[in-house]
Every structure is written in C-alpha cells, then in structure tokens.
Write a structure and sequence with these properties.
The chain has 137 residues and is mainly alpha-helical. The longest helix is centred in the middle third of the chain and has 61 residues.
Length: 137
C-alpha cells in the first residue's frame, strides 16, 4: 500500500513539474511527447508495485511455511515427551524400579544395535531374580 502511495505521489509531482516546465520554456506549441512519457511512467510504477506485491506474497508464504514446520516440530517433541512419560509410568506400575531400569537399558541397547549394525537378533534377555525365603500367598 505504501508503494502505491509513493508511486501516485511521484507521478503527480512529475506531471506537475512537467506542466510548469513546459509552460515556462516551451514556446509556440512544440510538443515533447508529454503523454507518452506520462504513460511510460504510469506503466513503470504499476510494474514496480506488482513486483513488490509478488515479492511480499512469496515472502509471506515462506514465512508461514516456516512457522508451520517449526510448530509441527515443537508439537511432535511435546507429544514424544508425553508418550515417553506414559511408557515409563506404565512400566513402573507393572515392575519394580530397579528391574525397570535394567529393562530400559537393555531395550535401548537392543534398539541402538538394530539401527547401527542392522542386527536382526531377537530380544531374548530375561530379568528373573531368585530370592530366598520368599513365599507367594
């Protein structure tokens, strides 16, 4: 909008100055192509404004895409954190903390071996401990 105002002001000043210069210095009706020059100025300013609008539009689109990508990344991070907390809470509700930490370490080691080496061994670790003098009622 500001570019359009500046263009209108520039064209108006050009027209007014051209009128006063022609009225002072041009004699006996010699035409200097005033109409063609004004038409060329108008076309030039319209083209410059269209280019400015296009650049602004493309910039807005890129800014919105960047914002939406960043927002999606943050949402995914929060969702992953929430799901990990739920997973840990569920695991701790089933088995004691010291066994849960062992299971968690073994599972993370197994996953890292899968991603790093492509190993396809089955997860076969058992976490059974023998306790003396314990009875189940």
């Amino acid at each position: 909008c500001l570019g359009m105002v500046v263009s209108v002001i520039t064209i108006s000043i050009t027209a007014i100055s051209k009128y006063f210069i022609d009225s002072e210095f041009v004699t006996s009706g010699e035409g200097t192509g005033y109409g063609y020059q004004m038409a060329a100025d108008v076309v030039f300013h319209v083209c410059v404004n269209m280019i400015g609008w296009y650049v602004r539009y493309v910039g807005d689109i890129n800014m919105r895409r960047g914002f939406l990508d960043k927002r999606g990344c943050i949402e995914t991070t929060f969702r992953l954190k929430y799901e990990k907390e739920q997973e840990e809470s569920l695991l701790l509700s089933i088995i004691p903390k010291h066994i849960a930490s062992q299971v968690g370490e073994e599972v993370s080691q197994f996953i890292s071996n899968l991603t790093n080496e492509g190993v396809t061994e089955k997860f076969s670790e058992t976490f059974i401990e023998r306790h003396d003098n314990v009875s189940i009622l």
